[in-house]
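Worked Example 4.2. Consider the chain below.
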Amino acid sequence: MIRRLHQLHDSIWEKELGGVFTPPQFGVLATLAARPGIHQQKLCSLVALDSSTGSDVVNRLIRAGLIRRRRDEHDRRRYLLELTAKGRASLTETAPSVVEVNARLTRALPESDRAALLAHIDRILSEEPGR
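Applying the procedure from the previous section yields the following structure tokens:
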């Protein structure tokens, strides 16, 4: 069932966002909006991306001019990430479409059930090691 729900999400996402961002890319942008200046390793952990995939997503967003990377002055082995003005604008522009994806995904449920579903999903995800 979860696989089918994921497929439905991907289908709705593609219709709403038309290839603007992938869900992982949007997750990276939204996380950086909430936590500017975090290091890449922490970002990958927060958005549940392995380091290789996370690095690829970050590099694509850097090339697109949506985020910037700088060395951590306190630990030169780390990179800190933040949104650019273009990244903030893109996130603001696409956020309503992402809200619509979630609304369409759960529209068969009454509002109280939607809230409960999200609370249960949050609880499941919070139990994941490293979160």
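The chain has one domain: 1-127. The two ends are 24 Å apart (CA to CA). Compare this with Example 4.1 before moving on.
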